[in-house]
């Protein structure tokens, strides 16, 4: 499978997201909720991508444990990092929606939002966990164990929280299946845009880490072992070997050079 | 065949060792019991109530048990780390899961002892009737399995890190939210003011069971990687 | 084509989208800063490798003697740039070989 260059992917991301937002404001009809409902097209795709990202991180973690290759650890780390950032966006937009809809900045009877909060709190502990383990290899291994455990946790958590809340308010999430065509199309385009955004940012960050790691190796080679400063933030950053997934596009001449 | 028998023997040996050490040094269980009883008193004043029932009772009891469990989970692997127990397991020709299973079982034993003491105290302090206590003990036992399954995993991860006392509650508590939800959901009708009722408990017990199985399986799958040097 | 309502609802929707865009921009800004640092380091190392001595930098402790370094530098870099265990199985996504990405070295 040939991976498109990062530039092409980034352009696609911008195009799809822009198209999605255009659809949101100029095409999708208003429903009973009114204009507030437009937040739905932002909040839900973010949430779906974030959760999918956590699952992807778990898969990378499994591959890391099986192969011992640090590449997968790097991918797992970056996946969780971006999913947590998307998670912040989900919680903030969800809170804004709650405030607009029900007048309060947080509601406990929106089970998806609450589940998301718990998942977010769990994955936020990923960083102190990595930071607390000094040995690089062990850090990566334990982080992978955590990513797998947390990945198994996510569906259980959603199930438990959903069962705990008597559904008082009608949910737009659960009625997603019953969306009229135009709204569904808008939603799907926004979802595609968010997914592309997530993927692009992951590649972006992996490349930055890879470049950083290579630079420090290069520096070590040029100046000798006596001087080998750890790259900034390496304490909790996964070690990246010379051959990573971003190698192919790093040597791609069309990669944007800043 | 021989390997499995020796793994089981290793499991027995480690479990026996842990229980014997606990009996002799009494470092976890008395602390857990004292902590639980004191916390009940704190709740009495924090909530400004001298009688509890239904969801309040369930919440106070479960939160206390959860936090007391963390006390024990913090100490679960300390001896192994300090005395080189991890190395011993690695070198011995037994499955690493013997260590996992032994620690989880020990933790369940500690929790059962805790509940055997704390439940009656809780009833004396707050409850009007003792009728719901027996099925409640069953719910707690199921929750204990879940506590042990994730507790052992997190404890093993934290044992080899710095700030391990901080890491355990930090990572473990979000993981335990479904246990809290399900156990509270099951306990609430059992502790209802008018006497225990059993409606709707089945789904909560099912979730607890699902949680237990899931994390026991996850632990079984990943434990070798935790034991590697 | 609906005009943008400036009533209550509009403000909240706008706030949500602004938060989203703001987060992305913040992320891009941080990445840009990181890339700038990488570029700077790359420049330093390139000049080092070409035997031009070391540009002023807080980090470098020892002065490089250009004549001694330049013959050895390229040969040191070569084996380092195509380093050790490249797992044979890791050919996912059609990656090129990792060595020799820096053409000027």
Q: Overview of this structure, please?
A:
The complex is a heterotrimer of chains A (258), B (229) and C (105). Chain A has helices at 6-26, 40-67, 70-102, 111-124, 126-132, 136-164, 181-223, 247-250. By secondary structure, chain A is an all-alpha fold. In chain A, helix 2 (40-67) crosses helix 7. The longest helix of chain A is centred in the last third of the chain and has 43 residues, at 181-223. Residues 173-177 and 242-258 of chain A have low confidence and may be disordered. Chain B has 229 residues and is mostly helical. Helices cover 81% and strands 0% of the residues of chain B. Chain B contains ten helices and no strands. Chain B starts with a helix and ends with a helix. Chain C is built from two helices and no strands. Chain C has helices at 8-49, 66-81. At the A-C interface, helix 1, helix 2, helix 3, helix 7 and helix 8 of A face helix 1 and helix 2 of C.
> In percent, how much strand structure appears in the residues of chain C?
under 5%
- Residue runs with pLDDT of under 50 for 5 or more positions of chain C: 53-105
Q: Give the DSSP E fraction of chain B (strand runs of 2 or more residues).
A: under 5%
The largest sheet of chain C, given as strand count, sense and whether it forms a barrel, is: none
Number of distinct beta strands of chain C: 0
Give the low-confidence spans of chain B.
none
Number of spatially distinct domains of chain B: 1
Order of helices and strands of chain C: HH
Range of helix content of chain C: 55-70%
Structural class of chain C: mainly alpha
Average pLDDT of chain B works out at: 88
Terminal CA distance of chain C reads 57 Å
Q: Round the mean pLDDT of chain C to the nearest integer and report it.
A: 61
Number of strands of chain B: 0
Characteristics:
heterotrimer; A: 258 residues; mainly alpha; B: 229 residues; globular
Summarize the structure.
The complex is a heterotrimer of chains A (258), B (229) and C (105). Chain B is mainly alpha-helical.
Task: Lay out the secondary structure.
The complex is a heterotrimer of chains A (258), B (229) and C (105).
Chain A: H1 6-26, H2 40-67, H3 70-102, H4 111-124, H5 126-132, H6 136-164, H7 181-223, H8 247-250
Helix pairs in contact in A: 1-7, 2-3, 2-6, 2-7, 3-4, 3-6, 3-7, 4-6, 5-6
Chain B: H1 2-25, H2 29-46, H3 54-74, H4 78-83, H5 85-91, H6 97-126, H7 133-159, H8 164-175, H9 177-190, H10 201-227
Helix pairs in contact in B: 1-6, 2-3, 2-6, 3-6, 3-7, 3-8, 3-9, 6-7, 7-8, 7-9, 7-10, 9-10
Chain C: H1 8-49, H2 66-81
């Amino acid at each position: 499978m040939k991976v498109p260059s990062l530039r092409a992917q980034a352009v696609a991301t911008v195009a799809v997201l822009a198209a999605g937002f255009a659809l949101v404001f100029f095409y999708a009809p208003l429903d009973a909720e009114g204009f507030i409902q437009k937040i739905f097209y932002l909040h839900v795709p973010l949430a779906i991508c974030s959760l999918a990202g956590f699952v992807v991180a778990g898969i990378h973690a499994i591959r890391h444990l099986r192969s011992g290759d640090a590449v997968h650890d790097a991918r797992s780390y970056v996946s969780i990092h971006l999913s947590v950032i998307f998670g912040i966006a989900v919680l903030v937009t969800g809170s804004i929606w709650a405030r607009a809809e029900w007048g309060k900045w947080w509601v406990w009877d929106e089970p998806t939002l609450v589940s998301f909060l718990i998942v977010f709190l769990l994955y936020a502990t990923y960083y102190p966990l990595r930071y607390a383990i000094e040995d690089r290899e062990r850090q990566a291994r334990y982080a992978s164990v955590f990513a797998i455990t947390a990945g198994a946790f996510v569906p259980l958590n959603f199930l438990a929280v959903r069962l705990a809340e008597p559904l008082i308010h009608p949910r737009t999430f659960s009625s997603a299946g019953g969306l009229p065509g135009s709204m569904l199309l808008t939603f799907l385009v926004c979802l595609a845009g968010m997914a592309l955004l997530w993927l692009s940012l992951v590649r972006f960050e992996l490349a930055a880490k890879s470049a950083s790691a290579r630079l420090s190796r290069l520096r070590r080679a040029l100046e000798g072992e006596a001087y080998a400063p750890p790259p900034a933030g390496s304490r909790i950053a996964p070690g990246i070997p010379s051959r990573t997934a971003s190698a192919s596009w790093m040597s791609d001449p069309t990669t944007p050079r800043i | 065949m021989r390997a499995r028998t020796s793994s089981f023997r290793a499991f027995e040996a480690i479990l026996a060792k842990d229980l014997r050490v606990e009996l002799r040094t009494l470092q976890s269980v008395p602390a857990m019991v004292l902590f639980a009883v004191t916390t009940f008193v704190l709740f009495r004043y924090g909530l400004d109530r001298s009688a509890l029932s239904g969801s309040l009772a369930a919440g106070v009891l479960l939160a206390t048990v959860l936090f007391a469990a963390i006390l024990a989970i913090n100490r679960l692997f300390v001896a192994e780390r300090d005395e080189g127990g991890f190395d011993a397991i690695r070198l011995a020709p037994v499955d690493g899961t013997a260590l996992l299973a032994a620690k989880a079982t020990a933790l369940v034993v500690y929790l059962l002892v805790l509940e055997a003491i704390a439940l009656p105290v809780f009833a004396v302090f707050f409850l009007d009737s003792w009728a719901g206590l027996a099925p409640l003990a069953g719910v707690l036992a199921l929750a204990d399995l879940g506590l042990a399954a994730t507790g052992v995993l997190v404890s093993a991860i934290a044992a080899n890190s710095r700030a391990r006392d901080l890491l355990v509650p930090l990572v473990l508590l979000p993981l335990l939210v479904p246990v809290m939800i399900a156990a509270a959901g099951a306990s609430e009708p059992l502790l209802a003011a008018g006497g225990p009722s059993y409606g709707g408990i089945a789904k909560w017990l099912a979730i607890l069971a699902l949680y237990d199985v899931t994390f026991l399986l996850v632990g079984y799958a990943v434990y070798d990687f935790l034991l590697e040097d | 084509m609906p005009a943008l309502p400036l009533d209550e609802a509009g403000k909240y929707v706008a706030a949500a989208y602004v938060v989203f865009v703001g987060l992305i921009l913040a992320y891009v800004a941080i990445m840009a800063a990181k890339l700038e640092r990488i570029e700077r380091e790359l420049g330093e190392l390139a000049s080092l490798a070409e035997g031009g001595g070391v540009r002023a930098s807080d980090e470098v402790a020892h002065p490089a003697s250009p004549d001694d370094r330049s013959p050895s530098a390229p040969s040191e870099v070569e084996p380092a740039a195509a380093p050790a265990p490249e797992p044979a199985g890791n050919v996912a996504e059609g990656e090129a070989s990792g060595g020799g990405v820096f053409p000027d070295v």
